[in-house]
Amino acid sequence: MSELEKLLADIEAKTGIAVVAKEDAAGEYADVSQEGGKTSFRFAFGPKAYVGEIAGDTQVERNYALMLSALIENSAVQEASLSKGEFLRNILLGDCGAGKIQKYTIKYAVPDAPCFVLAVRTDKLLDEVMAMLMQSATNAADTVTAMDPQSCAFLKFVDDSMDYQSAYDYAVFLGQTLYEELGVQINIGVGTTVKNIYESMLSYQQAATTVRMSALFDNKGMVHTYREYVFIRMLEDLPEQRLGEYMSELIGDEAKEIFEDEDMMNTAEEFLQNSLNVSETSRNLYMHRNTLMYRLDKIERFTGLNIRKFSDAVSFRVLTILYKLINK
Questions:
Q1: What is the CATH number of domain 85-232?
Q2: Helix, strand, or coil here: 160?
Q3: Looking at residue 215, what is its pLDDT?
Q4: What is this structure's pTM?
Q5: What is the fold of 239-326?
Q6: 235, 224 in Cβ contact below 8 A?
């Protein structure tokens, strides 16, 4: 399906007006003409002239024809006037079909090479962050585009000049550089590496989901990968009512006190992050060992889970995820 056919299909889906179009190579049609129960109108799309035809030949259809002619031509002009970043933003958001992506690859000499997307979120200095990301580009096709006032996406192509073993390592380098140069704390989500730009939307969706999940779960560190949150995404896809049922089956009302206590949850999270190591957790939290043991005992008393045991720690992690998904 051509870009024009897609546009006409979209118009029909949104307005209910079916437009049949054919090329007007000879320029033999009037701007608007009506006869035989049909209305025809001329329009330009790209370098070619076309004639569109809709059913009906009243004044209403004539008005529709004038409106559709302007709409179709404006759509073509808007696409032509998009900047490289705006064009990429549309690709990453899934607003471009294969035909439009091909135009992007030709216009900007984009290689048919593996690439990945980093979703970068910052509370300040977004323009400066984007400028520094572009300075780190090693391929002419690498591009940064703003996605909203607090985040941007960085499309990075894998090439021989990359000195990093993985997209994650590269993101860690960028995060450290941005912090050292700009003094900003950022959150970077790393999408999986895909085979070419045609699949970049998937990588961006993963990266954006990773940023959202890491914020929801207050996970430490600037850089996170989508693989860290696959299990959470699986649970998130379940209906909220079902999540609530699971939560109710696993814990009682008394246990909710633990999940609503920020200090207790921070302690439990640090304990899990330190592989259930009491000494390491006490040191990182600057907490006396006896205080830590008291809190772990309280968690066990209220939830029935001794998170010093691996199996109970896994169950507690699942309950934590369920609680945050329900109350997000």
A1: 3.30.70.270
A2: coil
A3: 82
A4: 0.66
A5: Arc Repressor Mutant, subunit A (1.10.10)
A6: no
